[in-house]
Specification:
With 289 residues, the protein is α+β, with helices and mostly antiparallel strands. The protein has a domain of 106 residues: Ku70, Chain: A, Domain 2. The chain has 5 helices and 11 strands. The strands form 3 sheets. A 7-stranded mixed beta barrel has the order 1-2-8-11-10-9-7. A two-stranded antiparallel ribbon has the order 3-4. Strand 1 and strand 2 form a beta hairpin. Helix 3 runs parallel beside helix 5. It is extended.
Length: 289
């Protein structure tokens, strides 16, 4: 089934305009959500706002928004006033500059969208993909949607354009806030760590090899509940003995990894030997009358 567009926009740089369609790169349905129910009768619960001063339920038409500028002091805004502050959606992705793709740290990434060519923009779209691919650069710009202005990066992915919504620099906490004690790394430890990495190293990223096992377990439990089965907690493994010494931990990891690899090799060799010794299938004789 073809992907459904969630919006449209126009990439603008210089005098060039590229109409594009936006597509979500992920499925929100992947998250398993639960509803709040009344334990006594199993009915859905409704959310209500209660005044912290009077203790009474406040209806929706009696609610306004406020910003706490000092402890317990608020400046009030009506819905109309807040609406005037929202960024007007222009459906324009204004490109400010082109930066080396490798220069944008992945910590800025917030959300990803696919961009497909809009009507009449197929040639300009393909040109932009090819130009970004050839230069190794990405387009940096801003895009307004749903009352907010987003910082975005547009990069090629094969023959497709991808728009990454980024955090603004002021939204991120400084890495300098994380304490990092200075501890020297020993050459022997580094050598063992590199060896351990190389044992598990692969040349390609294969995301299909990984599954959300928690989600699968939740869905299985839900189905058992639907089928009328009881759910009991599985016994948890006891705490394993800790290896305090770093060198001992590295050596134990290498030994465990090596044993696992050795177990797989004989199984493959036995399977290959069995296939080699197996006699060739004889053709069936034709029945004679």
């Amino acid at each position: 089934m073809a992907a459904r567009t969630i919006g449209s926009a126009t990439i603008s740089f210089g005098l060039v305009s590229v109409p594009v369609n936006l597509f979500s790169s992920s499925e929100s349905s992947a998250t398993v959500s639960f509803n709040m129910l009344h334990t006594k009768c199993g009915s859905r619960l409704k959310q209500q706002y209660v005044c912290s001063k009077e203790g009474s339920v406040v209806e929706k038409d009696e609610v306004c928004k406020g910003y706490e500028f000092a402890k317990g002091q608020y400046v009030l805004f009506t819905a109309e006033e807040i609406k005037t502050l929202d960024e007007k959606a222009t459906n324009a992705i204004d490109i400010a500059e082109f930066v080396p793709l490798a220069a944008v740290d992945r910590i800025y990434l917030e959300k990803v969208y696919y961009l497909g060519p809009g009507k009449g923009g197929e040639r300009a779209y393909r040109l932009l993909v090819a130009a970004l691919e050839a230069t190794g650069r990405a387009a940096m710009g801003q895009y307004s949607a749903r009352g907010k202005q987003h910082l975005v990066l547009i990069r090629p992915m094969g023959d497709l354009l991808v728009m990454e919504q980024l955090h603004y620099h002021g939204d991120l906490r400084s890495a300098d806030e994380v304490p990092r004690p200075e501890v020297p790394v020993k050459d022997a430890e580094l050598a063992l760590a590199r060896q351990l990495i190389e044992q598990s190293a692969v040349d390609e990223f294969r995301p299909e090899n990984y599954r959300d096992q928690v989600r699968e377990r939740v869905l299985e439990a839900i189905q058992r509940k639907v089928d009328g089965q009881d759910i009991s907690a599985e016994p948890t493994e006891g705490p394993q003995g800790k290896i305090i010494d770093l060198m001992d931990a590295l050596k134990a990891s290498l030994a465990k990894r090596g044993a696992s690899t050795a177990e797989k090799k004989p199984a493959r060799q036995a399977s290959a030997a069995k296939s080699a010794k197996a006699p060739a299938a004889r053709p069936k004789k034709k029945a004679t009358g």
